[in-house]
Amino acid sequence: MPNWCSNGLTLTHKDPAMIDRVIKGKEGLLQEFIPCPQDLTDTVSGYVGDEQEALEAKQAANREKYGYATWYDHNVAEWGTKWDVSADSIERVDANTVQMSFDSAWAPPTNAYEKLMALGFEVEATYYEPGMAFCGRWDNGHDDYFEYGGMTADEIEATLPKELDEEYGISQAVSEWEQEQAGEENVDIELNGGIDSINE
Description:
Structural class: alpha+beta
CATH class of the largest domain: Alpha Beta
Order of helices and strands: EHHHHHEEHEEEHHH
Helix content: 40-55%
Low-confidence stretches: none
Number of domains: 2
Strand content: 15-25%
Strand order of the largest sheet: 2-3-1-4-5-6
Number of helices: 9
Radius of gyration: 23 Å
Shape: flat
Number of strands: 6
Distance between the termini: 50 Å
């Protein structure tokens, strides 16, 4: 299973029909605008026994035709994440703007954002991946990326942009973890103290 990355996304387009497409594609946003060809979707990777020779021939044909051997190669390169995304929440702000939130596998789909910009969208996004301790704000091609692994809650609060920290509750989550760890250490000290007094 992948680590899940939380995402917030605002898309704006001069043509309301493009916003209609975003809402229509809310269960498969990336496929709606940057589709993975069916030939790739139907191709697996790895060893498949007796069918290995046919698989390798299919992958070679895909690579020649599409530039990618499998759906995985395509998605990671074209989208920036291995699977499509589905909106957890979506709201049309006005005729030309939509906001949504979703999870993506391992990383935010920033490669897809570049391609959405090429289609005329303005793209503002945030992301947060607690497993690998990174987060950021992506604004029309500019990526403010932060790694906070090893930082204390106070250091995170002082380092991250306030809006990003508050949106995902990052320093708060780390603070709660620190309090849990301190509680466990106190229990260990008390238990070890009791054992020492018994041994005396």
